[in-house]
Amino acid sequence: QPKRIRFEYIHQAATAKKTIKKLCTWLSVSKAGYYKWLKQSLSQRASENDSLLEFLKKVSSDEHCIPGYRKLWKAAIDNGYECSKGRVQRLLQSMGYRSAAGKRRYTGSGKK
Known about the structure:
- The protein is an all-alpha fold.
- Helix content is 59%, strand content 0%.
- α4 packs across α5 and α5 crosses α6.
- The chain is elongated and about 70 Å long.
- The chain starts with a helix and ends in an 18-residue tail after the last helix.
């Protein structure tokens, strides 16, 4: 697993019984690396991703159906976000988002 994920786990799991030193040893990361990660601020790209993700959540909750990443990407572009389809898809996958496929309707006009 990437170190960032391990550091996030340490940050969430640290209690009186689970000290940071024990967690760092258990996850094979250094204490200095953890504290460096803790002090650093979000990069510009990470903060842009956070704001884009919040926008995508808002748009998908406003829709009566569950839109796919292409519709959400188009909505983001229309609202001034600079992003690619792949970036939108990656952000949605990271939060476990799944779109709903439309029902296939039987028209009854098929040839036999």
